[in-house]
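ok trying this again, last paste got cut off
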Amino acid sequence: METTNSIGLDQNSAKQLAQNLNELLANYSIFYQNTRGYHWNIKGEKFFELHLKFEELYNDLLLKIDEIAERILTLGYTPEHNYSKYALISSIKESGQISEGYIAVQNILDSFKIVIVKQREILNISANANDEGTNALMSDYIRFQEKLVWMYSSFLKK
């Protein structure tokens, strides 16, 4: 019986990575939709600034959603694609209609914390599995998002 998958990773490690990546995919998908809602519904004096920033963020999240799904496929598994499943496995919850900028930014920071923690978990698993592809993806995401956390926190004067 073959113990490695088509890219030379241990089957058990690949399965564990795919499961964790599907959880990350669920979190990103809810984060994405929440951010679109903030973009659509933002009001107030910071409208122009936040409307643009939220659009930049949801476009970036959409790219990451696709990359994560493709990584799951590369590992030999199927990415989840149903919001009903996402709602069950995501730590990020759907937000209600939010038009207040500071509340939206705080929710974004809370969501970043969730995905960064999950990505660090995946980074640890991928390092132990010698999975450089997943490792590089998570490292890139974390580096970029840590800077965004600093910027959004500065906006809130934290």
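PB: full thing came through this time. The mean pLDDT is 97.
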